[in-house]
Amino acid sequence: MTDYKNFNLIDHPLIKKNITILRDVNTDGEKFRSAVSRISVILAVDLIKNVKLKEIMVESPLEKTKGYKLANDIVVVPVLRAGLGMVNGFLQVLPDAKIGHIGLERDEETLIPKEYYFKTPGNLKEHSVIVVDPMLATGGSASAALSFLKNRGAIKPIFTCIVAAPEGIEKLKEEHPDVNIFAAALDRELNDKGYILPGLGDAGDRTFGTL
Ligand code: PRP
Ligand code: URA
Questions:
Q1: Does residue 41 lie in a domain region?
Q2: Per the confidence metrics, is the pTM higher than 0.85?
Q3: Tell me: the pLDDT tens digits for 114-167?
Q4: Does 68 map to a domain?
Q5: Is ligand 1 within 6 A of the CB of residue 74?
Q6: Is the CB of 118 inside a 6 Å radius of any atom of ligand 2?
Q7: How many angstroms does the Cα of residue 150 sit away from the middle of ligand 1?
Q8: How far from 133 is each of 3, 81, 109, 162, CA to CA, in Å?
Q9: Distance from the CA of 141 to the center of ligand 1, in angstroms?
Q10: Is 195 in the pocket of ligand 2 (CB under 6 A)?
Q11: Where residue 45 sits, what CATH number does that domain have?
Q12: Does 56 map to a domain?
C-alpha cells in the first residue's frame, strides 16, 4: 500500500514530536488541539507545494516585475467534527481560503458514515479543494466526502489527514484513484471496532472533550 503513488507521508521532526503529544492518553484537550493545529500548518505548507501558480505583474517601489499568485482559489473542507481542529492551521498558511463543511458520523456498529451536513461554495470546478480530517481509518468517511465534492464539480480534490491506516488508503486507492493523500503518520492497522492502532483514539472526542 505504501507503493500507492498518490500517498504522501510528510516526514518532519515537528510532526513526529507533535504526533507523540496526540498519541499520549494523558494529553488534555487544550494541548491536543494545539498539537493538531501545529501539524496542520506543516501539512498545509507541504501540500501547497503542488498547486499551480499564475504569473502576474507586480509594481515594486522601484519598477514593475514578475510575481505569482495561486492559479485557483482554495477551498478547505473539514469533515465534521474532528476536521474542524485542522482548519485554523490551514488558514494560517492559506488565509484567503474558503471553508466548506461536510458533516459525517460513523455508525459505531456498521462503521458506515452517515451524512448530516454539507455546505460548500457552488463552483467547486474553479477551486482547488482540500479535504481535512485527522483520521483515515476504514476510509468510508473520506471516500463519501470526496464523492460529495466531486458531485459538486471538484476536480482532483486532495485529502489530508494526520493518521492514516492501510485499510483507508486501500479504499481511496480503489474508489478515488485520482486523489492525492497527504498524511502525517502511517499506522499499522485497525482494531475490530475500526479504531486505528496505535492511533490516538477518537479524534473528535479528544478535540471537543466529549469523552
Ligand atoms: C472520525 C474521523 C473520521 C472518521 C474516520 O469521525 O474524524 O471522520 O471517524 O473513520 P473512517 O475512515 O472509518 O470513516 P467520527 O465519525 O467519529 O465523527 P466525529 O469527528 O464527529 O467524532
Ligand atoms: N476515528 C477516530 O477518531 N479514530 C480512529 O482511530 C478511527 C476513526
A1: yes
A2: yes
A3: 999 999 998 899 999 999 999 999 999 999 999 999 999 999 999 999 999 999
A4: no
A5: no
A6: no
A7: 20
A8: 22, 9, 21, 7
A9: 6
A10: yes
A11: 3.40.50.2020
A12: no
53: helix, coil or strand?
Answer: strand
Gap from CA of 115 to ligand 1 centroid (Å) = 11
For residue 175, report the distance from its CA to the centre of ligand 2, in Å. Answer: 20
User: Is residue 190 domain-resident?
Assistant: yes
Give the number of the ligand closest to the Cα of residue 138: 1
Domain that holds residue 37: 7-50+74-208
Report which residue type is found at 110: T
CA angle 55, 59, 65 (to 5 degrees): 50
Dihedral sign, CA of 51, 52, 56, 62? Answer: positive
| CB-based contacts of 30, cutoff 8 Å, min separation 6 | none
Which ligand is the nearest neighbour of the Cα of 104?
1
Confidence of residue 211 (pLDDT cuts 50, 70, 90): confident
Could you give the residue numbers annotated as active site? 106, 110, 202, 205
Residue 61, SS3 per DSSP: coil
Cβ pair 77, 120 in contact under 8 A: yes
What pLDDT, on the 0 to 100 scale, is given for residue 47? 94
Which one-letter DSSP state was computed for residue 152? T
Residue pLDDT, tens place only, 166-206: 999 999 999 999 999 999 999 999 999 999 999 999 999 99
What domain count does the chain have?
A: 1
Ligand 1 lined by 139 (C-beta under 6 Å) = yes
